[in-house]
Design a protein that fits this description.
single chain, about 260 residues, alpha/beta, Rossmann fold, 2 domains, six-stranded mixed β-sheet, 9 helices
């Protein structure tokens, strides 16, 4: 399935990672990395498990601090912000967790109401209902509004998790392994939803994945994390048109039986 062309403003950098390093003891996860995300772009970060992809988005959202370098998000230097400033910035960043991060004791409606009521305290009951119904309709699950997460499939939970993130109308979306643990047909549905979110909500997104089918379907541009650095970037074809022995097995695992 071909990805639709979207308007990307290459003059407007919404995330800039400058010379960032991060280690955990003797494990050097990121080594002097640089990265830019443009306004309106879906940027895919590829890499094997344990290569630092998830660490990268935790740094971007301020959940971790870099050992070196700066991370600029929507005009703010994330690693220089205090907790109050970080909370304000995070309202503009949607974080789609790998496990959907729904509250099992709450209905779908209550899961979506929770961030809305916590961050926008002056909304009326009618306004809350409207917001919840709109985002559920946007992900195709309005009929699940009164169900419990345990009653939903993995793909449905993933969609509800994305809806809960969208309810605050973020400028940036961060997706952590959005297709992990899903069957191939449900993966296609989630990939289509990521593209739909980009088009409908005009988001700029970073998609962390090792699923090359996902990368090919949703990415406007891709970067590959190898040995703690972004060694390759460009289109899917540009990244994998190589004899680099670090890259070829990654492609073969995804596409060769």
């Amino acid at each position: 399935m071909e990805k639709k062309k979207v308007n990307i403003n290459h003059e407007d950098v919404v995330i800039r990672v400058d010379n960032v390093s991060k280690s955990f003891g003797d494990l050097h996860v990121l080594r002097d990395v640089d990265l830019q995300l443009f306004n309106g772009e879906n940027l895919v970060v590829l890499g094997r498990s344990g290569t630092g992809k998830s660490v990268l988005i935790k740094l971007i959202s301020g959940l971790l601090k870099p050992d070196k370098g700066d991370i600029h998000v929507l005009g703010e230097i994330v690693n220089h912000l205090d907790e109050r400033e970080l909370r304000a910035l995070r309202q503009r960043i949607g974080f789609s967790f790998q496990n959907s991060a729904l509250y099992d004791s709450m209905t779908v409606r209550e899961n979506l109401e929770f961030p809305l009521v916590r961050n926008k305290r002056n909304l009326t009951r009618a306004e809350i209902d409207k917001e919840v119904e709109e985002v559920l309709e946007g992900v195709g699950l309005l009929q699940a509004i009164n169900q419990m997460p345990s009653e939903l499939s993995g793909g449905q939970r993933k969609r509800i998790g994305i809806a809960r993130t969208l309810i605050l109308r973020p400028d940036i979306m961060l997706y952590d392994e959005p297709t992990a643990g899903l069957d191939p047909l449900t993966c296609l549905d989630i990939n289509s939803l990521i593209n739909q979110v980009q088009e409908q909500y005009h988001t700029s997104s970073i998609i962390i994945t090792h699923d090359l089918s996902c990368a090919k379907m949703v990415g406007d541009r891709m970067v590959m994390l190898l040995d703690g650095k972004f060694e390759r970037q460009g289109t899917f074809e540009e990244i994998f048109n190589t004899d680099d022995e670090r890259v070829k097995p990654f492609y073969d695992y995804n596409f060769i039986d």
